[in-house]
Each structure stands twice: as C-alpha cells, then as structure tokens.
Write a structure and sequence with these properties.
There is one protein chain. This protein has 19 helices and 26 strands. By secondary structure, it is of the alpha/beta class. Strands 1, 2, 3, 4, 5, 6, 7 and 9 form an eight-stranded mixed sheet that branches. A five-stranded mixed sheet has the order 10-16-21-25-26. Helix 16 packs antiparallel against helix 17. It is globular. The chain starts with 8 loop residues before the first helix and ends in a 5-residue tail after the last helix.
Length: about 500
C-alpha cells in the first residue's frame, strides 16, 4: 500500500498499524464508527480492537465499549466485536447475527431509534461524550480535509464531537468518488436552528469533504479492503407480484392526478422485495424518476444506467459484488447522478415532508388496522432495528409497507389480529402490499381498514381465521371503534411459540 492518498504531510507522520491504533481505545469508552448498511465502515481497527479485547478478557480483566455507528456495518466490525463480547451497548441499527443473538439473550444492550434522531440526540448530550471516532475515508487532501468513501452516515457528527479520531484510508474505495458527497455544515442546536436550504432532491447545499481538527487525529491507518458485498437473491414470484401491485397503484395515482407522471422522490428500504420493486420500475414505462433515500442498492444503479431514474440522493450504498464493480468502473457517470449526504440530511423529517417522498419499506407483520411491526419477531426478539423507515413513514407523501403474506413455509401470517410490537402506528401507514394484493388505507375508518387488509392482503389459508376473529370482535369487544378481543389478540403469536404455527 502506498501513501499517495494521504497528501497532508503532518498526518502522514501519524500513520500506524491497526494494532497500534486499536491500543489507543480504552475499556469503557464510547466509540463512534463510520459505516452504513455495509459500506464505508472501518475494516482494520475494529478487528484489531476485537483481538485486543479478547486478550485482555483472557487475562481476567473486563473490556467492553459503547458502540455508535450510522447503521448496520459488517462482520469485520459488528461481528468481530460481538464475538469478542466487546460491546456493552449498541446504537442505532444492526444486522449482524452474532450481535443479534447477544441482544436477544440479554448480554448486549441495544438502543433502537430513528436514524434521523441519532446525530441530534448525540449533539444534545443524551449519550454522553464520544471518546473516540474511527472513520473510513477514501483520501486525505493536502489541506487535511477528508474525502468520504461509500457512506457518510453520522461521520460529520462523530468527527465534530469525538475527543480523539482514528482515520482509516481505504485504497479499495474508488478515488473517483471525490465530488459525489454533499456535507452540510449549517445545522445548529435549538433554539438557533435555521431552515435547511434544500428544495429539490438533487440540490447541493454543502461541501464535498469532511472537516476535522487535525490535532484530534491520533492515528492514520492504511487499508485496502472491500465493503461488505452481499448479493441479492434472485427475484422470486412473490416479490414480482408485490412489485406489480405497487407499480399498478402508482400508475393509478398518476391517472387520478394524485401523483405527477414522474411520481415523487422515492425512498427504498434495503432488501430483496424493494429491489424487486426497483426492477419492476425499469419495465413500467415510467420515466424521469428521482430518489431521496438512505441507501442505493443494485436496482437503483440499474435505473440510473437505463435513464429511468434521473438522479438519486443517499447516505450510503448496499451493492452486490457485481454492482460494486459496475459502480467503480463507471464512477464518472454515477458521480453526476448520485449525491451522498449526511444521515441527518438524508433522513431529515422536514426534508422528507417538503419533498413529498414515497416510502417503500419492508415489514414483519401488520394488524387489521394498519399498525406495522418492522423490528420484532413474536414481540420480543429483535431482527435488525427500525432504521430510517419511521422517518419516511411519518413524514412522507405516501408510506407503503411490503411483505409476503406468509413466511416460514406458511406457518406465520404477516397479517395478524394485533401486532406483537408497534413501530409504525395506523395513523402513519398508507398502503399495505403482499403478493395477494394491495390495501389502500387512506381515508378509511378502522373497521373498513380491517376488511380491506383481510380481503386484499391476507393469504387464503388465514383469511377465514382473520374474518372469524374480526366478526366476533365486532360483536363482543369492549368498544366497537377498533374492535379487539384482548384474550385472543396476541394468541396467534403464542400459538406459534407453542406449536410452530399460527394456524388455528
């Protein structure tokens, strides 16, 4: 590895090994690291820190840290530190199986909050001081400015607030990425906030590099490693049907004059179903689309390349190995069409409302009245976290939730009498889509919502069971506005826990 990407002579003097950098992190520290959905996370220091933690613990001494990031990272970060039992508290979003297991067995504390809240809550002092920031960049300019890599996330906040900073310069990241970022330094704490001057999804309101006090940088580590490259599964028939129902709905809304011909800025959660929707948009005949979202995945690159999508705003990437190579190979093309923002801008509720975003997110389950659970299995076991879905659900022009009607071979219904955990209330949910159909809940009172969800979205194997519950609830419930039979409302979940199936 060369030092050509570290142009600042003063910071070249601080180049050390990952092990030397990790030695600067002490037990009990709050450590903020870069990374968002497997992109732009530090590759070497977390691994070295995990090894050091294991050595210290083997000597009978405790060693854990409080870990903050932008969103999920990768096995080299979350996975390594979780396996080493090195994380006391994790915030805000995770997807690592080892971390998830520790959270669910009660040995790792996890705080799940909206992604738009993270930076401001840290600025407010809700989580105490940040001791160390570990940030991946693609280069350090001669003036000391940091060129971000494939995610920005909360990096601006981490660099601003951390007492000491460790920088990883990753040569694997394309050097042509410089200029793709838009980092806004106009935020302030209440009561001194001012309007954010962004009125279109492709507006640039900031600068292309990150600022940091050079005196805070205690180590620079050179790396050359890929982002987490997770291939998407082939699009299955259910995903195609879900995408088809949603795209048909979009066209209907355009015909009714409720959406413009090029829709409104799209937000897409990460996963195989949202990726299928993006693939469906490529064949829809719609053109001139835009995106104001958190993450760009394979489908959005395809839409940009085909000209269906004019431009996209994000804070990070989640690309397959093939899409990563496509992105790096044609970086000049994408640099003109992709803007990467800080997480507090990409998920800012006021911007989401101003732009009128269309949210497309996955869910675990939805109940008869439109309450959505997107985080917990059977009410108590976390999957990943709420991420940014709430930022777009509560504030967007349309909030759509997508899921197969059943999972686990049909043993679990995604449509249930009452959700076992509420992330998005019925007041914020507009559209539910399964492979069975689409339920437009806008303007409907609760009982009409229930009939629509059952008739349009429930799997036939569970439809009679749902209708039976709802009919009896309408007759026997304590109140008739939102009818429920409380002794039975969560019985489907308990039945699954007891028998392995929700079927009655």
């Amino acid at each position: 590895m060369s030092v050509e990407r570290i142009l600042n002579a003063h910071l070249r003097e601080r180049i050390v090994s990952a092990e030397q950098a990790a030695a600067l992190i002490q037990p009990g520290e709050t450590v903020a690291m870069s990374g968002f959905t497997g992109s732009g996370y530090p590759k070497a220091v977390p691994m070295a820190l995990a090894q050091r933690i294991e050595q210290v613990q083997a000597e009978g001494r405790p060693f854990q840290i409080q870990l903050l990031t932008g969103a999920s990272t990768a096995p080299e970060l979350d996975g390594a530190l979780a396996k080493a039992n090195g994380i006391a508290m994790r915030m805000p979003f995770q997807s690592d199986p080892d971390a998830r297991n520790r959270i669910n067995n009660g040995t790792l504390d996890y705080i799940d909050i909206h992604l738009s809240h993270v930076a401001q809550h840290v600025w407010f002092g809700f989580y105490g001081e940040i001791d160390t920031a570990v940030i991946e960049v693609s280069a350090i300019r001669e003036d000391g400015a940091l060129v971000p890599s494939t995610s920005i996330g909360n990096n601006k906040t981490w660099l601003d607030l951390a007492r000491k900073v460790i920088i990883e310069v990753n040569e694997w990241q394309p050097d042509g990425i410089e200029g793709m970022h838009d980092i806004y330094y106009g935020t302030a704490l209440p009561p001194h906030r001012k309007p954010i001057p962004l009125v279109s999804a492709n507006d640039r309101i900031g600068q292309t590099t990150l600022k940091v006090d050079p005196d805070k940088i205690v180590a620079v580590v050179r790396t050359n490693g890929p982002d987490r490259n997770s291939p998407f599964k082939p699009i299955d028939e259910d995903s195609k049907l879900i995408a088809g129902h949603l795209i048909e709905f979009f066209k209907h809304e355009v015909a009714k004059g409720r959406l413009p011909a090029n829709l409104l800025p799209l937000q897409s959660g990460v996963g195989n179903i949202p990726n299928a929707v993006l693939a469906g948009l490529a064949e829809s005949g719609l053109r001139g689309l835009t995106a104001f979202t958190e993450v760009i995945q394979d489908g959005m690159l395809d839409l940009l390349k085909s000209g269906v999508l004019d431009y996209a705003s994000c804070t990070g990437f989640a690309l397959s190995p093939e899409a990563n190579e496509e992105f790096k190979r044609n970086i000049a093309f994408y640099r003109e069409r992709i803007i990467m923002r800080t997480q507090e801008m990409s998920n800012h509720p006021e911007l989401v409302r101003r732009l009128g975003c269309i949210g497309m997110n996955g869910m675990i389950e939805v109940d008869l009245y439109g309450n959505v659970n997107s985080t917990h299995v059977m009410g108590s076991r976390i999957m990943n976290g709420i991420g940014g879905s709430g930022d777009f659900t509560r504030n967007g022009f349309l909030s759509t939730f997508l899921s197969p009607s059943t999972v686990k071979g049909g043993s679990i219904s995604s449509i249930v009498p009452m959700v076992s955990h509420v992330d998005h209330t019925e007041h914020d949910v507009s559209i539910i889509v399964t492979e069975q159909g689409l339920a437009d809940l806008r303007g409907l009172p609760p009982r009409a919502r229930a009939r629509k969800v059952i008739d349009n979205c429930a799997h036939p194997h569970y439809r009679d069971q749902l209708n039976d519950y709802f009919d009896r609830a309408c007759r026997d419930s304590y109140g008739k506005h939102t009818p429920h039979l409380l002794p039975e409302a969560l019985s489907w979940h308990q039945r699954y826990i007891d028998t392995g199936s929700m079927k009655g």
